[in-house]
Design goal:
single chain, 373 residues, alpha/beta, Rossmann fold, 6-stranded parallel sheet, 3-stranded antiparallel sheet, 21% strand, NAD, Myo-inos-1-P_Synthase_GAPDH
């Protein structure tokens, strides 16, 4: 590891964040946190001999949020991939207020499309007009510019080389990003050839040696621990943005409980995937884990382990490309009274993702996750 993305304050110098003040008996705010009581009404149903019995119930929830976001680090599994290099480049471009020329004119870096950074929330009607406020003024939201980023990849290209390979950014922007991207080299990652397509083998030149999965787990735990200590972080998130793996078997004795999951890693069981190792390592180090690919990483044993350690785990695919379009189209069709039975599509812009999915076992994860035929 030769470098990492160090966060800086996301607000412009002299710019003061506006505050949204809520005057309500259900909201309490002090210098450190916001606390709110929420009443949720839900119908409960019971099938009886006489018919369907409906009972309205009210549930009270207490939500508590810190006013100051924690100092947060993001570790990307697949840092040198298209998603990883593009995300890091976008953050640098926004931090440095970069501009670049395109055939349509000069483009400035922005966070358009970000739910937390650019979307608004409708609060209501004030008697004269509709009232909308920025999402990030309702509750404290961490700016992407404040993230400290590092990660792993099975390929040893630095992020400038990875960015060139991804072919996402305009050439002028790539050169402006070069001084910031070139020093960043991914940490060695885990490579089990059985879990991703064979055509990925030529990229795997930056891997943790050996076949002992227990040692691999300890290696990743050490990486997470060192990253947290080096940057004095309060919170660490491990995000899988690497290749889609094939589905792993979910069977009794292998991964149905936390104890089974840890024992399977100790025995280097064949069905323990790289993403299983990263998820378990994150949980044991108190880091949250997000799965950005459609494989079944979060088996019952890993979910149980996360509960025991009070760590958040979630995710089953970013659904940021074709999948998002399909989701919108299906919602439109269903609301129009039509029932789509299948969607046939052709992935011709998927870069290495499409290459990895060209093998049937990896595509099964995508197909199963998205309900494709």
């Amino acid at each position: 590891m030769n470098g990492s993305v160090n966060g800086i304050n996301g607000t412009t110098a002299g710019q003061k964040r506006k505050r949204l003040i809520v005057d309500s008996p259900y909201v309490r705010c002090d210098e450190n946190e916001i606390e709110t009581t929420f009443h949720y009404r839900k119908n409960h149903f019971l099938h009886t001999a006489e018919g369907l019995k409906v009972s309205p119930k009210e549930h009270e929830y207490l939500f508590k949020t810190q006013l100051k976001p924690k100092k947060t680090g993001l570790l990307l599994v697949g840092l040198g991939g298209n998603n990883g290099s593009t995300s890091v480049g976008a953050i640098f471009a926004n931090k440095k207020h970069m501009t670049w020329r395109t055939k349509e004119g000069v483009q400035s870096a922005n966070y358009f499309g970000s739910v937390t950074q650019t979307s608004t929330v409708h609060l209501g009607w004030d008697g004269e007009q509709q009232v909308h406020v920025p999402f990030n003024e309702i509750i404290p939201i961490l700016s992407p510019n404040d993230l400290i980023i590092d990660g792993w990849d099975i390929n040893n290209k630095n992020l400038y080389e990875a960015m060139i390979r991804a072919q996402v950014f305009e050439p002028e922007l790539q050169e402006k990003l070069r001084p910031y991207m070139e020093p960043i080299v991914p940490m060695p990652s885990i490579y089990y050839s059985d879990f991703i397509a064979a055509n990925q083998g030529d990229r795997a030149n930056n891997v943790i040696p050996g076949t002992d999965k227990k040692q691999h787990l300890e290696h990743i735990r050490r990486d997470i621990r060192n990253f947290k200590e080096k940057h004095d972080l309060e919170c660490v998130i491990v995000l899988w943005t690497a290749n889609t793996e094939r589905y792993t078997d979910v069977v009794e004795g292998l991964n149905m409980t936390a104890e089974q999951m840890l024992a399977s890693i100790d025995k280097s069981a064949d069905e323990v995937s790289p993403s299983n190792i990263f998820a378990v390592a994150a949980i044991l180090e108190g880091a949250h884990y997000i799965n950005g690919s459609p494989q079944n990483t979060l088996v019952p044993g890993i979910i149980e382990l996360a509960h025991k350690h009070n760590v958040f785990v979630g995710g089953d695919d970013f659904k940021s490309g074709q999948t998002k379009i399909k989701s919108a189209l299906v919602d439109f069709l269903v609301s129009s009274g039509l029932k789509p039975e299948s969607i046939v599509s052709y992935n011709h812009l998927g870069n290495n993702d499409g290459k990895n999915l060209s093998e049937a076992r990896q595509f099964r994860s995508k197909r199963t996750n998205e309900g494709c035929k």
